[in-house]
Design a protein that fits this description.
This protein is α/β, with parallel strands linked by helices and about 325 residues long. Helix 2 links the parallel strand 1 and strand 2 (about 50-55). It is globular and about 60 Å long. The two termini are about 30 Å apart. The protein has an 8-stranded parallel β-barrel with strand order 1-2-3-4-5-8-11-12, surrounded by 10 helices. Strands 6-7 form a two-stranded antiparallel ribbon. About 45% of the residues lie in helices and about 15% in strands. The chain has helices spanning about 15-20, 35-45, 55-65, 65-80, 100-105, 120-135, 170-180, 215-225, 240-250, 260-270, 280-295, 305-325; strands spanning about 25-30, 50-55, 90-95, 110-115, 145-150, 155, 160, 180-185, 200-205, 210, 230-235, 275-280. The protein has 12 helices and 12 strands. The structure holds glyceraldehyde-3-phosphate (G3H), 1,3-dihydroxyacetonephosphate and zinc ion. 1,3-dihydroxyacetonephosphate binds next to strand 3 and strand 12.
Length: about 325
């Protein structure tokens, strides 16, 4: 049993309070390997941004949660060595059961998500409350994110054909009964690189897909019910056209990619959204650079010369997000 405090990590409690009152959102970047972790920490130290290092079920399977826990500990020491101690949260993304959440809490995670969004309201309440009771009674309080409403796309290995927007009428009851510390809501974002079907979009003169707008009205209705309670947005990659085009230029095929425009995320962050989840954009940045190098330098076979430039591009992407999308730069 390790407490996150022994690892130099923090929970989300104070960070979210500051983010909501300051009109910005914390970045929640998924990581699975060392290069992603280094890029996240370099970018967040340079922009002086607090950060949530996020571990999905897929990441636990790929990299092992103990290795990831120790990488998060390494991240704290790395930030210190780079010259600025930013607050770092280690968060379980889309926890699928009480047992997984408990295991992560006992491993040293400072925050967990319990994703009961596919359950009935009452089952979601019961499961989320069980996780909160356990997490909150630890010697060092672990924060819990719950979810109401369902995103389209892939969540925890299950494909959902349609999104089900969060019902503002349910949020007070859910938060009151479960005592969650933050709430993920569904307002039109979705996971992955294809957030909308082409028939839901329009096209600009160059044929680029333009998505329908986020339902910021639902976010405002939730705010009317919950006041300054911390809200989370999943599926918030913007799927930059430049990366998609670069991947396709170097042999990839990513037809019908479309993401959430940055200006809409900025608006959400100015309201009560205080955590914005980004994974797919990092995947696109890394893949674009890896493809470019392999094609332009066919003689290259040292992984450091392939993954190094991909890491540099990731850092650039995260710095841009912190400064121009989330508004978290300068807040650490
Ligand atoms: O919510 C989904 C995240 O992008 C994580 O995806 O389970 O493939 O790591 P993953
Ligand atoms: P994206 O697929 O839009 O990056 O969303 C990531 C996410 O929500 C992780 O929980
Ligand atoms: Zn998610």
């Amino acid at each position: 049993m390790t407490s996150y405090k022994e690892l130099g990590l923090v929970n989300t409690k104070e960070l979210f309070k500051k983010a909501v009152s300051g009109g910005y959102a914390l970045p929640a970047y998924n990581f699975n390997n060392m290069e992603q972790m280094q890029a996240i920490i370099q970018a967040c130290v340079e922009t002086k941004s607090p950060v949530i290092l996020q571990v999905s079920a897929g990441a636990r399977k790929y990299a092992n949660q103990n290795i990831l826990k120790n990488m998060a500990h390494g991240a704290v020491e790395y930030a210190h060595e780079l010259g600025y101690d930013i607050p770092i949260v280690l968060h379980l993304d889309h926890g699928g059961s009480f047992e997984i959440c408990k295991e992560c809490i006992e491993t040293g995670f400072s925050s967990v998500m319990i994703d009961g969004s596919k359950l009935s309201f009452d089952e979601n309440v019961a499961l989320t409350k069980k996780v909160c009771d356990f997490a909150h009674s630890q010697k060092d309080y672990v924060t819990v994110e719950g979810e109401l409403g369902e995103l389209a796309g892939v969540e925890d290995d299950q494909a959902s054909e349609h999104s089900h927007y969060t019902k503002p009428s349910e949020v007070i009851d859910f938060v009151g009964k479960t005592k969650v510390d933050s709430l993920a809501i569904s307002i039109g974002t979705s996971h992955g690189r294809m957030k909308f079907k082409p028939e839901q979009c329009t096209r600009d003169p160059n044929g680029i897909l333009i998505p329908p707008p986020l339902r910021l009205d639902i976010l405002e209705d939730v705010k009317k019910k919950l006041g300054d309670f911390p809200i989370v947005l999943h599926g918030s990659s913007s799927v930059p056209v430049e990366y998609v085009q670069m991947i396709e230029k170097y042999g990839g095929k990513l037809t019908d990619s479309v993401g959430i425009p940055e200006e809409q995320l900025r608006l959400a962050a100015k309201s009560t959204v205080c955590k914005i989840n980004i994974d797919s954009d990092g995947r696109l940045a890394m893949t674009a650079l890896i493809r470019k190098i392999l094609i332009e330098h066919p003689e290259e076979f040292d992984p450091r010369n392939i993954l190094g430039p991909a890491r540099d591009e990731l850092k650039k992407l995260y710095m841009h997000k912190n400064k121009n999308v989330l508004g978290s730069a300068g807040q650490a």
